Amino acid sequence: MLYGRKTEKGQSGQAESTYSTPESNESRQEQDYGNEKKKTRGATRGHKGYGRKIPDNLPVREQIIDIAEDKKKCDCCGEALIEQPELDQISFEISSEKIYYIKKIVRKAYTKACNCPETKALIVASPPSKIIPKGKFSIEFWADCLINKYMMHLPVERQLLDMKLHNLPVSAGTIFGGFEKLHSLYLEPLYQAMAIQLRKGSHWHADESRWFVFIELEGKDNHKWMMWCFASEDIVLFVLDPTRAAKVPCQTLFDINIEELERATNGEPLSEHKTIDSKILNADRYSAYKRLQRAMLLLIAYCWAHVRRDFFDLQTKYPQNIQLSIWAKEWIAKIGSLYHINNERIKHKPGEPAFIEQNEKLKTALEKMSDEMQKEYEHPAQIDVMNSMKEHWEGLTLFVEHPDVPMDNNSLERMLRPMVLGRKNYWGNHSLWGGELSATMFSIIQTCFKHNISPPAYLKYYFSECAKRGAAPSKEEIDSFLPHNLSQDIKEKLRINKAGEHTPGC
Questions:
Q1: CA distance 260 to 266
Q2: Residue 9 domain-assigned?
Q3: Does the residue 384 lie in any domain?
Q4: Residue 430 near residue 215, CB atoms below 8 Å
Q5: Which of residues 401, 433, 449 is at a domain's end?
Q6: Is the pLDDT of residue 38 over 80?
């Protein structure tokens, strides 16, 4: 159950479970939904292909391979060979080179040629802006260190070893001291602006996973904290907290404390200055999110991928029960068909004939599911699964009336995966500010990806703007630095192109 094949991916060769949820990127066999067949992804078998693809956005360094001097003549008479540049044989290969270098900064100096007393005798160009005052490392260096750890998931110790191998010995204290300054001076204000922007949304996704913070905290007897992730249309925000309590989504999404939430749960209105409109949250069935719904703060759209997983788990628990396994496979196929119908529905705008047709199919399929749930079942596992579906049915069908709401929470779970990879590589943090920096960097990186912006390019741009000011942008202007609010020209410079790199020259 814990280490088996991912349940969100279909089982090849089993017609009942060939459907894969949208998160699957495996090549699929042809699938038959009624009379409609889905074409296999990938190249056709026997196709000759298109040859090697050499990226055209990379710089070109020419390497000339010449014939040895003693071979540039005829072996018989000794007559010199005639060079034919138009017949040179040209080929390409992709290479790489990593270097650390010292940037020698020359500030031009001028003396006056006149006797004007108002003019200084010596005029020197202004020094370049520094992200850390009097620091010896550049903006590019610090941005690369942060990206290497929080996007590429290289622990600092591995980065230090790499620097040493490239003739640059740096101490761990230097890197961590720089990280702490960058966080407190520049990244924390950006993170707070992202948190404020997140609350302006009306549709969110949420999930959480464990994170280790190795500090002693009063009232907490272990190091297992929680890294929460929330996403709106514009922002992805990671929040680190010692608990898995409802106060975290309550504070993050609505900026209200737990006491207000409890009063709302007991039927008391929220504070007069709090105006809560109708909002939707894509989430799993965790009780913390349900408390927000009971407080009438939002509606929860429950995840069909989790429901589908219930039936796979049932097969795993009772492999010898053939009848139960067949029943589970039938439900998996029904959920797959539901995904297919909805995918066809949302290809069209509401009100269009094609949308209305698929919408009716969707409602019919859900009505049949509802009828199946009302049947009497004997096996305890069947009863548990059906009771869970009955309890969450309203949230599971919320996507019908809200076509913009997806059927599952897979998009946010994909955003969590890089964080989990980082947890495997460097385990956690040994300080509170380090944990907050992790949450901040994960937020910046995933928000950039959401808007097709290169995180390294964005971080260098933001640090450069901070260095020019000598501080983080003010509260009045920092919103303009959020990835979705950047000007179109800057977005174009920072964007991720088809080759997977940001635009050259940024």
A1: 10
A2: no
A3: yes
A4: yes
A5: 401
A6: no
Q: Are residues 143 and 256 in the same domain?
A: yes
Strands 428-429 and 203-213: parallel
Contacts of 129 (CB under 8 A, 6+ apart): 464, 467, 468, 470
CA angle 271, 273, 279 (to 5 degrees): 85
Residue numbers of the domain that contains 396: 304-401
135 and 247 both lie in a single domain: yes
Contact between 118 and 387 (Cβ < 8 Å): no
Q: How many domains does the chain have?
A: 2
Instruction: For residue 381, give both structure tokens.
Output: 């596992």
| 361 and 416 within one domain | no
How do residues 104-155 score in pLDDT, each as one tens digit? 999 999 998 899 988 888 999 998 889 998 899 999 999 999 999 999 999 9
d(CA 425, CA 415): 17
Give the 3-state secondary structure of 101-117: CCCCCCCCEEECCCCCC
Q: pLDDT digit string (tens) for 443-495?
A: 999 999 999 999 999 999 999 999 999 999 999 999 999 999 999 999 999 99
CA distance 347 to 355: 8
Q: What confidence tens digit (pLDDT) does each residue in 65-82 have?
A: 999 998 999 989 989 999
Query: DSSP per residue over 208-254, as a string?
Result: EEEEEE-S-BTTB-SSEEEEEEEE-SS-EEEEEES---THHHHHHHH
CA separation (Å) from 150 to 207, 392, 414, 421, 438?
A: 19, 36, 15, 10, 7
Closest by CA to 6, choosing from 15, 21, 386, 14, is 21
Neighbours of 208 (CB within 10 A): 22
Do 296 and 325 fall within a single domain?
Answer: no
Identify the three-state secondary structure at position 454: coil
**pLDDT > 70? residue 32:** no
Q: How would you classify the pairing of strands 299-302 and 280-283?
A: parallel
Q: Which residues contact 182 (CB under 8 A, 6 or more apart)?
A: 131, 132, 142, 146, 463
Domain identity same for 268 and 415: yes
What mean pLDDT, rounded, does the chain reach? 88
Residue 501 placed within a domain: yes
Residue 424 lies in a domain: yes
212 shares its domain with 311: no
Choosing from 363, 382, 401, the residue where a domain stops is: 401
229 and 262 both lie in a single domain? yes
Query: Given pLDDT bands bounded at 50, 70 and 90, which one contains residue 22?
Result: very low
Claim to verify: residue 175 and residue 296 sit in the same structural domain: yes
Q: Say what the pTM is.
A: 0.84
Dist. CA 263–CA 482, nearest whole Å: 35
- Give bridge partners of residue 241 from the DSSP assignment: 226
